[in-house]
Specification:
Blueprint: E1 13-14, H1 15-21, H2 30-39, E2 43-46, E3 53-57, E4 62-63, H3 68-86, H4 105-113, H5 120-125, H6 129-142, E5 155-159, E6 163-166, H7 168-180
Antiparallel strand pairs: 1-6, 2-6, 3-4, 3-5
Helix pairs in contact: 3-6, 4-6
């Protein structure tokens, strides 16, 4: 970090960039090394300006802060549309909810949420829609016999990436070592 001028006045580098940016060949996981260096006050991690967490929509592939509920509702409706498209229909064109003809989106979700198949729409539309959306997407993706579509996805919450620099203490140690040489 000293050689790359990643000192206290630097903006810092993210953990994900550290090994490549600093051209390191570590025997241990980067996270382990960073944790040990933080414990002995050699490096410090600081949060970048901005929110502590970011909400990311898989379906939109973008950050959706301020629109989480809106996106969760839209993606839940997309799951419901997918479920309706997947529902078997009788000879007269009316939906058949439980005909035993194999895995359906409705069946997968009814089992996941431990509810009757007829109640899936209402269940997805009420309560914590983000949590229910994420559970529904996982259930569909993991189920045999059904395929998830691209018009819905999970909403993932990620912490802003810390940026790491040498501490003033580490700089003092390095400078003292240079003076002795």
């Amino acid at each position: 970090m000293w050689d790359h001028n990643v000192v206290p006045a630097h903006d810092g580098i993210r953990l994900a960039e550290m090994e490549e940016h600093l051209d390191l060949d570590l025997q241990y996981n980067v996270e382990t090394s960073v944790r040990h260096l933080r414990e002995i006050d050699i490096i410090v991690g600081t949060a970048p300006p901005g929110p502590d967490f970011y909400a990311i929509s898989e379906s939109l592939d973008e950050i959706v802060l301020g629109r989480v509920d809106e996106v969760a509702e839209a993606d839940s409706e997309s799951i419901i549309d997918h479920m309706h498209d997947d529902d078997p229909v009788s000879d007269d064109g009316t939906p058949v909810i439980a005909d035993g003809s194999g895995a359906t989106i409705r069946g997968v979700l009814a089992e996941e949420f431990d509810i009757i198949p007829e109640a899936v729409e209402d269940y997805l539309r009420h309560g914590d829609q983000v949590e229910k959306l994420n559970e529904a997407v996982d259930a569909i993706r993991e189920a045999d016999g059904v395929e998830a579509r691209d018009d819905y996805g999970k909403i993932i919450f990620r912490r802003g990436a810390f940026r790491y620099t040498l501490t003033p203490y580490a700089v003092d140690l390095y400078e003292a070592e240079e003076e002795e040489d």
